Structure prediction request, 144 residues.
Amino acid sequence: MKLLFLNGPNLNMLGIREPDIYGRQTYAALEDYIRGFCGEMGIDCEIFQSNHEGVLVEAIQNAYGKMDGIVINPAAYTHTSVAILDALKAVSLPAVEVHLSDVSQRESFRQISYAGMACVKTYAGYGFKGYRLAAEYLKEHIGK
Prediction:
């Protein structure tokens, strides 16, 4: 199984940006965590982060025919990007949305998720563990 782990804007600033919300671990630590559990689970993973919407759309499009599923943390684009929604719908790969914080308990503008409309499941508020939960879900979901 091959999964794309796609991370949106400002996730490269983990450990620096609002650590009381997003934690004190770095983006490099997140990448190590993902590689570690994927290795344990026998999943081939590709991890990608960009602050640019079009680059994220292209990464989703490039997953078509190469990946079995997508774990996506669209970050701020969650609440604004119809382009990411449309890309996820276009490739028709099972996708799981992940958020480090519990966006349902945050500002009102964070209550809508365009990307989530194309995802089979969402994990929010689990920190790094949300990525593992998403991979476990996809492994079971795709295996059916």
